[in-house]
Amino acid sequence: MRPPVGSRANEQRRLEEVALADMNTYSAKVRMLAAGEQGLVVDFGNEISMAINALVQRLVKDLAELKLEGVLETIPTYRSVMIYFDPLVITRRQLTENIKVLLDQLGTEEPERVPGRVLCVPVCYGGVFGPDIDFVARRTRLSVEEVIKVHTSRAYFIYMLGFTPGFPYLGGMPEQLAVPRLEKLRVKIPEGSVGISGRQTGFYTEESPGGWRIIGRTPIKAFNPGQPHPFLFAAGDYLQFKAISVDEFFAVRREVEAGTYRPEITSLEQPGGENGDPV
Predict the structure, then answer these.
(1) CA pair distance 68, 71, nearest whole angstrom
(2) Domain, as residue range, for 167
(3) CATH number of the domain residue 11 falls in
(4) With contact defined as beta carbons under 8 Å apart, do 130 and 214 qualify?
């Protein structure tokens, strides 16, 4: 008979931060933090970088392939992985030891270079779709046309999804487009709105409150809970924005509503830059 969950409470508290003894192993450099009775955070560092995020994505992949009984869900972020587990099936210590093995393998293997998947995101910039694009142009001392040209000039790496379902946190936005977020949040930002906040860019996958500067809108639907695979993209993919006209916006919207729209997908070599810049 398994001991009751409560009898392991002291062990769980003591493992709030797991310190691995062998400092010669890669796993000793990674922090593991308790997040309640069913959560474990694997923390790779204190910075946002492509190298750290590659380890995050690899651990998520390896855990999925390992198919540990009792692991319920893995959630990648910029620099860590949240793992939810059933403590009646697998203990925190058992889970930690399995992760330690995977981490030590990561520390000895060469990084896997796999072509990145790039999804084209059509955007109608300015006008009613981009009420803040004039502010961005004034703040950055660029013309509206230059703002659009710079924003569409590269593929952006998706570090993580969050905030609302499928909202992409992107790396690699040119610093010359950086602008402060709104001082007062908007109560409603339409689904598909493309925005800038600080040195980040992304788009709202659902209507929601928000404080990002809105420069355009995409007609594609990135989150569809009625589909077997509800998310259009995932962490580790890239997004490439493409400027379109108002007429093209509504033409794509009609295809999306009819269920016939298929996004343009290409590939590129995994980046070597620190901020998501392709090599």
Answers:
(1) 6
(2) 116-268
(3) 3.30.1360.40
(4) yes
